[in-house]
Design goal:
Elements: E1 3-13, E2 19-29, E3 33-37, H1 44-52, E4 59-64, E5 67-68, E6 79-82, H2 94-104, H3 109-122, H4 138-151, E7 156-160, H5 168-185, E8 189-193, H6 196-202, E9 205-210, E10 213-218, H7 220-225, H8 230-235, E11 240-243, E12 249-252, E13 258-261, E14 268-271, E15 274-287, E16 290-297, E17 300-306, E18 317-323, E19 328-329
Parallel strand pairs: 3-8, 3-9, 6-7, 7-8
Antiparallel strand pairs: 1-2, 1-4, 4-5, 9-10, 11-12, 12-19, 13-18, 14-15, 15-16, 15-18, 16-17
């Protein structure tokens, strides 16, 4: 595959002291879905706006299929967008919303009608073309927004937190639909979200941003299983980060910490193929079918998720054991 979407050294400054995006570079192959992941304020939506042409970067370049788009106006980039609030026209019907971009491109009437019918069928709204968007549910509005973006046959599809306004079950269904359609049409797609579960469910590649910079780029599995640093580890759910006696910093998930009643004493000891240390239970709460424990071990706090029925109480002395293969060196 050839690199299709390319950002090189993108900087976006608001005044001399603040850079919302600071030297961002990446390439995305044609037909792939890239997720820009990160907390609020990390620069992911700003990056999307730069790609879309709504925001001109302070410096750097944006290219699509080898063409420099950095100074090309948004309406000439042929990019499809689905916004967090969908940005539908309430005074227009479903069909009229989908047709809007086609009319702006002066497509002939019969061709517009044909394309709108195709898009309605694609998003399973075939019998709702005449309905006003205000009469639709949130999930239906989301599908109208997607159909409108796809109708123009975009060179790049841009999705800005498109599922955040949906309830949990509908989000799961719609992210599967988004991925199905993206793969069906081979759409080069950039998906912005702060939700790691959502990101990992749909992305071919992931960029985790922090303060306008890339902390890690890779596949979902690479980032989830092998975080590059402490920020990434904490963001993707490594609850326990601590230092070994030799000064190395490691991370381990709560479900990868084994727990035994009784303790051998203070400090960390290498024991066979893992490390062992003693602690005291500070808190025990139910989590699903298991128990989530907060254990104080020296100056560090550990989260431990057990799956057995053993009852643990506050103040109980315990031993924690972590297999070396589950310790991620940061």
């Amino acid at each position: 595959m050839n690199s299709y979407l390319s950002l090189q050294n993108i900087v976006v400054r608001y005044g001399p002291a603040f850079a919302a995006v600071n030297g961002l570079s990446f390439q995305l192959d044609e037909g792939k879905l890239l997720c820009l992941l990160g907390p609020s304020g990390c620069g992911k939506t700003t990056t999307l706006r730069v790609i879309a042409g709504f925001l001109r970067p302070t410096s750097g370049t944006v290219a699509v299929a080898g063409k420099d788009f950095t100074r090309t106006p948004a309406h000439k980039r042929n990019m499809g967008l689905v916004f967090q609030n969908y940005a539908l026209f309430p005074h227009l019907s479903v069909s009229e919303n989908i047709a809007f971009g086609l009319r702006m491109r002066k497509m002939p009437g019969p061709a517009i009608e044909k394309r709108v019918r195709e898009m309605l069928e694609l998003v399973d709204l075939g019998n709702l073309g005449g309905r006003m968007v205000a009469q639709l549910s949130g999930g239906q509005q989301q599908r109208v927004a997607l159909a409108r973006a796809l109708a123009i046959q975009p060179s790049v599809l841009l999705l800005d937190e498109p599922l955040s306004n949906l309830d949990a079950l509908l989000r799961i269904r719609m992210r599967a639909e988004l991925k199905r359609i993206q793969q069906q049409f081979g759409l080069t797609t950039v998906f912005v979200t702060h939700d790691q579960e959502e990101c990992f469910a749909v992305a071919d590649e992931v960029i985790l941003l922090n303060a306008g910079r890339i902390e890690q780029k890779g596949t979902s599995r690479e980032i989830f299983d092998r975080p590059a640093n402490r920020f990434v580890a904490e963001f993707v759910g490594f609850e326990n980060i601590f230092r070994l006696p030799d000064g190395r910093e490691v991370a381990v998930r709560a479900e990868d910490v084994a727990l035994e009643k009784g303790t051998f004493g203070a400090g960390i000891r290498f024991d066979g193929d893992g490390v062992r240390l003693g602690g005291v239970v500070e808190l025990a709460t139910r989590k699903g079918r298991g128990t989530l424990l907060l254990v104080q071990a020296g100056e560090a706090e550990f989260h431990v998720l057990t799956r057995d029925e053993t009852v643990h109480e506050r103040g109980e002395q315990v031993t924690l054991f972590m297999m070396q293969r589950n310790l991620i060196l940061l």
